[in-house]
């Protein structure tokens, strides 16, 4: 009696296993025909019996589910996240599946990153953060986590950004990478290539010279800088100071950490230390426009607009064709416009108010006139920048420069039609 019961039980387990395998095979066949909904249906039938399966069969199940969710997901984050979780489970159960899942994982990462870029551009920072973190969980590429943290900062989700930044520091991430570059003969511009082989082919063609390996800028200073500023924002000056002290002790000559320390000092109203550190940063390479540009960015981010404009102008003295510096000066100068317009809109219709309105309007026009040369030079350097075109067009309109307005509008319309 006992023997018969045991044999029956074994037959029952075998039947379940056979059923699972059959449904998974059906799902895999449906995937080959891009019938993703059908594949999910077969997998849903197999799922209740999954507990009796071995790890290899479970891995097959989760791999198939991941591909089905990815194929049917499009831009649906819920499905893309489900695919990421399924692929992760498959690899945990059977690491040998890594080669088989290489292409689907790349496609999944591309879908998540492209979606995150769109979300970021639309100001949907929480969704961008989630997608990039999910991509990191799949790819294990720390750059995904770095950009997830940046979006968390933009969305003012400071706890999440601190968590992600700390994860990056714990793994020793710096963001430094090697780039294969060469100089284009015709323009003298240094251009990067995806691989060393592509760079070498370009050099052999004769169009490029001076093949080099360039190391990209470390992101560690920026990470520590952001962390310290977040701690200050949260009122945790002690934590901010402790973090920066440890970082500077480890890398006392790191320019980016020095800048972070300067920004922290400014936030804490330690102007003397701020100025001292700024002088050291400039002294490290006084003829380098990049340093002044970066100092301008840092000063703008902590609200020191006048200082930022000064640094950008110094960068332009060293490199008059520094497009980013030209645009950033224009942006900061135009930032004065909002306050002037707000004051103009708050006025009534009395004689005194009308006189004040005219004064404010003249101040606004002066801002436009100060800004115009920077934008016009930037457009000369990059004639296809639609945002610069649009801003210039609006300025010309406000200043009643009708001929320039019509010319810029025609250029912008042509560019947008072409695009």
TrEMBL record:
Chain segments annotated as transmembrane: none
Keyword terms, alphabetized: Repeat, TPR repeat
Each TPR repeat, start to end: 289-322
Record's keyword annotation contains Ribonucleoprotein: no
Classification via Pfam families: TPR_1
Domain of life of the native organism: Bacteria
Protein name (record): Tetratricopeptide repeat protein
Organism: Aequorivita lipolytica
């Amino acid at each position: 009696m006992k023997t018969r019961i045991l044999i029956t039980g074994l037959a029952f387990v075998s039947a379940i296993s056979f059923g699972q395998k059959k449904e998974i095979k059906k799902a895999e066949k449906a995937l080959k025909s891009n019938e993703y909904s059908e594949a999910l249906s077969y997998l849903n039938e197999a799922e209740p019996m999954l507990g009796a399966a071995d790890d290899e069969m479970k891995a097959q199940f989760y791999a198939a589910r991941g591909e089905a969710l990815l194929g049917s997901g499009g831009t649906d984050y819920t499905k893309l996240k489900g695919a990421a979780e399924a692929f992760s489970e498959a690899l945990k159960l059977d690491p040998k599946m890594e080669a088989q899942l290489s292409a689907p994982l790349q496609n999944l990462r591309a879908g998540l990153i492209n979606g995150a870029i769109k979300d970021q551009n639309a100001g949907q920072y929480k969704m961008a953060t989630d997608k990039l973190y999910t991509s990191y969980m799949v790819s294990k590429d720390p750059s995904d986590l770095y950009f997830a943290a940046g979006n968390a900062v933009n969305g003012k989700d400071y706890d999440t950004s601190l968590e992600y930044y700390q994860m990056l520091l714990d793994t020793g991430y710096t963001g430094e990478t090697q780039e294969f570059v060469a100089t284009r003969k015709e323009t003298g511009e240094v251009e990067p290539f995806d691989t060393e082989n592509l760079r070498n082919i370009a050099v052999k063609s004769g169009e490029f010279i001076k093949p080099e390996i360039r190391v990209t800028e470390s992101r560690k200073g920026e990470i520590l800088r952001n962390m310290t500023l977040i701690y200050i924002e949260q009122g945790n000056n002690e934590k901010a100071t402790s973090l920066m002290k440890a970082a500077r002790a480890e890398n006392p000559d790191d320019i980016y950490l020095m800048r972070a320390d300067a920004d922290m000092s400014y936030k804490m109203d330690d102007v003397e230390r701020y100025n001292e550190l700024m002088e050291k940063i400039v002294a490290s390479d006084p003829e380098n426009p990049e340093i002044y540009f970066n100092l301008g960015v840092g000063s703008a981010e902590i609200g020191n607009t006048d200082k930022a404009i000064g640094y950008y102008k110094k960068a332009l003295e060293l490199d008059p064709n520094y497009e980013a510096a030209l645009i950033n000066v224009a942006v900061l100068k135009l930032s004065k416009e909002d306050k002037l317009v707000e004051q103009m809109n708050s006025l009534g219709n009395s004689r005194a108010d009308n006189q004040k309105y005219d004064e404010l309007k003249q101040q606004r026009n002066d801002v436009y006139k100060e800004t115009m040369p920077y934008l016009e030079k930037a457009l000369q350097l990059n004639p296809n920048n639609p945002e610069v075109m649009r801003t210039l067009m609006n300025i010309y309109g406000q200043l009643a420069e009708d001929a320039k307005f019509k010319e810029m509008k025609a250029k912008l319309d042509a560019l947008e039609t072409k695009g």
